Amino acid sequence: MSPDDVMIIVIAGLLSTSCAVLGGFLVLRGQALLPDAVSHAVLPGIVLIFLLTGERASLWTVVGATAFGVLCVLGSDWLRRSGVVESDAALALVFPALFSLGILGISRFASGAHIDLDSAIYGDLTFAPLRTISLFGADVPRSLVITGIATVAVVALVVALWRPLQAASFDPAFAELAGLRGRLTGQVLLVAVAGLAVVAFDSVGAILVITFFVVPASTARLLTARLGSMLVVAAGCGWIASVAGHGVAVSLDTSIPGTIGLTSGALFALALVLAPRRGLLARWKART
Amino acid sequence: MSGTVTGSLQAGPLGGLLESLPLSYPDAVVVVGTAVVGFVAGLLGPLAVLRQRSMFGDAMSHGTLAGVAVAFLLTGAKVPELLLLGAAISATLAAFAMIALERAGRLRSDAAIGVVLSVSLTLGIVLLTGISDSGNAQQSGLDEYLLGQTAGMVERDIVVALAGAGVAVAVVLLGFRLLRSATFDPGFTAVAGVRTWVVDAASTGLLALAVVLGVRTVGAILMVALLVAPVVTARQLTTRLAVLLPLSAVIGAVCGAVGGLVSGRAELPAGPVIVLLATALAVLSVVLAPRRGVIARARAGRLREERGRVAR
Amino acid sequence: MTDDVLAPAEAAGGTDDVLLRTGGGRMTEPALRLQGMSASYGGRPVLTGVDVEIPAGVLSAVVGPNGAGKSTMVKAALGLVPSVRGTVRWLGQPLRRVRKRVAYVPQSDAVAKDFPITAVQVVEMGRYPHRGWLRRLTPADDDCVAGAMAQVGVADLADRPLDELSGGQRQRVFLARALAQRADLIVLDEPFTAVDARTEKALLEILTRLCREGVSVIAVHHDLREVLDSFDHAVLMAGTVVAAGAPADVLTPEHLETAYGMAPLAAR
Known about the structure:
Chain A: Belongs to the ABC-3 integral membrane protein family. The structure holds three protein chains of three kinds. Chain A has helices at residues 3-29, 34-41, 43-53, 59-81, 87-109, 117-122, 142-160, 162-170, 172-177, 182-223, 227-252, 256-274, 280-287, and strands at 132-135, 138-141. A two-stranded antiparallel sheet of chain A has the order 1-2. Chain A is globular. Chain A contains 13 helices and two strands. By secondary structure, chain A is an all-alpha fold. By secondary structure, chain B is mainly alpha-helical. The termini of chain B are far apart. In chain B, 51% of the residues are buried. Residues 1-11 of chain B have low confidence and may be disordered. The radius of gyration of chain C is 18 Å and the shape is globular. Residues 1-27 of chain C have low confidence and may be disordered. In chain C, helix 6 (139-151) crosses helix 7. Chain C starts with 7 loop residues before the first helix and ends with a helix. Chain C has a six-stranded mixed sheet with strand order 5-6-7-3-8-9, sandwiched between helices. In chain C, helix 8 links the parallel strand 6 and strand 7 (216-220). The longest helix of chain C has 16 residues, at 197-212. The interface between A and B is large, with 57 and 58 residues.
C-alpha cells in the first residue's frame, strides 16, 4: 500500500469514528435520517459562500454550509412542532428545497466555477491526499487535518455531555427533571451533526455521510447491550469498512466511497443474521 | 433534428393534444410530460405521507439507480422502457428490504430507511462508476437519473407516463375504500379480513410507479419532495381522502407544468424549479390555510382563551 | 454541596439506612399545590382552571377517564408540557428549587424501548441529579444504587439488558431509580399498566411503606377499586378537578357521574 492509500484509509476511518459516535445517538433517538438531509441541505451554503468570496474550500465555506445545515434542522423542527406536518414529511419537505436552491445557484451563477456536483455527491476521497496545506512546515493533506480536528472535537463533546445525552436519548422527561438540560444538549447534538456532516461532505461526499452516520451504528446496536460499547463497536465497524472497502475499490478499480459503503452494508447484513442475542438466527433458535 | 421532431409531430399519438397548446413543440412536450409526472406523484404521494412513510419515497428513489445501471449492463443499450423497468424492480426491492428490516429485523423505521438508502445508493454509484469507466459511449446520460433531466424528453416518454397514470388512477379508484381504511386506520384492514401485506405490497408497487416515472425528470435526490409537498398542501385544505387525492394530484400536475415551463424559459434545470414551486405552495398552505394553518390556529387558540376568561 | 442537605437520606448513608429518612418535620407544606393552572396541546386546551392541593406524606392517586388530563396535569406541573399557565408549588417551592427532591417514574411507553442499557445503569441515573454532568459516582452512590435495587427485588437483574426484562421487572427498575434518588416526593405516571398482578401488589406495598416513612407519593392511576382500597388521597379529574380528598369522599356516585358520565364502579 502506498502512503496515499494509507492516508485515504486514515481519513475515512477518522471520519467514520466521529460519524459513528454521533450517529449512535441519532439512531437511538429516531433521527437517523437527519445527516442525509443535512448533507443535501448544505449545498446552497457552499454556493453562497463561493458567490460572495470566490472560494469553495475555505473556513467560510464550512461556516456557510453549517448554517444551512442548521437551517434545515430548525426548519423541519418548526414544521413538526407546528403540529401540521409529521416529522418525516417535514424533513422530506425541507431538504430537497434547500438542495434545489443550491443547484439553481450553481446553474445560474456559478456554472463556470469548479463546484463540481459529481464530486460533491460522490466525494473525491481519491484525491484527498493530494490537496495539502502546510502545517508546522510540513505538507499535510487538508482533509486529514480537518477530519482529525473534527473527530477529537466530537469525542470530547460526547464525553463531556455523556450523562445528558444518554439520559435524554433514553428518557427525555427524566433528563429534563434531573436538571441535566436534556433538550439543550439535544440541540447541541444536532448542531454538531450539521457541522460534522459538512466536514464529511467535503471529504467523502454526500453518499458516505448517511452511510457513516447510520450503518455502523445500526450494526453495533445488533451486537451490544450497553451504550458505551455500542459506540466503540460502531467506530470499529467504520474502520473495518474503510480498510476493506478501500482494498476492494483498489482491486476492482472502482469508486472508493461506494465500496466503503457497500462493505458497511455487508457488515450490517452479517450482524443482522448472526448477532448473538438480537440476530435473526439467534431469535429464530430462541423461538423454536 | 428538426426533421425527426416534425416527424413525431405527425406520427405521434399525442400530436393533436400537443399542438393545441399555445407553445412550441419542445416546450409542449416538456410541460405535458412534467404535468403528468407531477399528477402521478401527487396522486400517489398520500400513500407515503399519510402512513408516516415520507422518507420511504426517498430511499425508493435512490434505489432506482442500481436498477437503471443493472438494466443497462444487461441490455447493453439505453432503451428507456427497459431502464424504467429496472428502476421499478430495484425501487420495489428497496421498499421490501425496508419493510423486512422493520418487521423481522426490529429496526426503527428511520434506521431501516437509512440503511437501505445508503446501501442502494452506494450500489448504484459503484455500478454507474463501473459503466462510465468501461467507456461505453451510450452511457452518457445515465447519471441524469440522479439529478433529473427534461431536455431529452420525447413524446414516447409522455405516452409511457400517461400509461402509468392510467394504471395509478384505475388502481386508486378500484381500491379506494381499502386505501382509506389502510391509510387512516391500519387496525381496521386487519379486522376486515384483508391482510396487511396485500395493502403494503399494493401501495409499495404504486409508490414505485410514481418514483420511477418521476425520477428521470426531477432526479432521485429530489423525487421525494414531489411525493410529499403536494400532499402537505392538499392536506391543509381538506380532511377528506376523496377530495385530498385528486386535489393533491392536480397540485402536483400544476407544479410540474409551471415548473417545466419556467425552467425551459429561464434555462434552469427543471427538477429544482418544480420542487421549489411545490415546496413554496406547501409552506404557504401550512402558514395560511383557513382552518389548519398556523395563523388560523393561533387565532382560534387566543379566541378560546378569551372566551374562557369571560366565562370565569 | 449545600444542595445535598436537601437529600436527607444521603446524609444518613449506608445501605441499611435506605429507608431511613429524617423528612418528617419539613412535610408541613403540601406535596403539590396548583393554582389556576391551565395547559394546552397544539392550541387545544386540555386543562383549565385547576386548583388543587395534595398533602405531603400520603399515597395519593390522580384518577379520571381517558383524556381527562390526568397525565397532563402531572406533566404540566413538572414542566414537561410547553404551554402552561398558573402557579405550581412542589413541597411549597417552585420546581427548580426542589428538583433533586422530586423523582419521576414515566409511563412505560415514554421511554425508548430499544435502548442499549443495563438495569443497574438505569438505577445509576437516579444519582445524576446529585452528581450533575461530570462528577463521578462515589462508593456511597454505588451503595445507594445497590440498596434501591435490593429494596424492589431486582438486585439479581443488575447486569441484564433492559430490553430483556418483563414489563413488571422494568417497572421495578424504574422505581429503584426513583428510590436511588432519595427523593422526598415520587411521581408515577400510570405505573401499573404493563405490569403483572404480583408486581403491582409488591410495588404498591413498597409505595405504602415509603409513605409511612414520610415520603409523598403521587400516582396517576385508572383502577378506582384499588384507589379506594389502598390509597390515602385521591384527585378526580375531568378536564379540571372534579373532587379531591379522601378516596371514599371523592369516588362517590355523583362525582363519578360528573367525571365519567356514568358510574364505573357500579358497572363492574
